[in-house]
Amino acid sequence: xxxxxxxxxxxxxxxxxxxxxxxxxxxxxxxxxxxxxxxxxxxxxxxxxxxxxxxxxxxxxxxxxxxxxxxxxxxxxxxxxxxxxxxxxxxxxxxxxxxxxxxxxxxxxxxxxxxxxxxxxxxxxxxxxxxxxxxxxxxxxxx
Length: 143
Description:
Elements: E1 38-43, E2 52-59, E3 63-68, E4 77-83, E5 91-102, E6 110-117, H1 121-142
Antiparallel strand pairs: 1-2, 1-4, 2-3, 3-6, 4-5, 5-6
């Protein structure tokens, strides 16, 4: 199972509020890339729930962060489908909501941070190769 560390932050009800994140609390274990990959998401097991399409704001081998039109409570497991360049089919796996905060200046939007869970070996290898490629590409842009 892949994971990343999220600092312990206070919550407002079931949602982590954006202004609750103290500056300098960046404790993630994996490097993240800012790339506009697409993710389809919905609550796990809710067959009749509408699948939403979002653009990923950043992603690592441990999790991702994206904007959503609906809030998800902390701990909610989501079914995710991520389309990555170089892969024929989207990668399908689950993510646990670790952050859910209002979209600030964008009414009706929520920023969702998920930790990837239950990724099998073959998917993990493919995913890691693609993310590693884009990490190197991002590093070259910065230098």
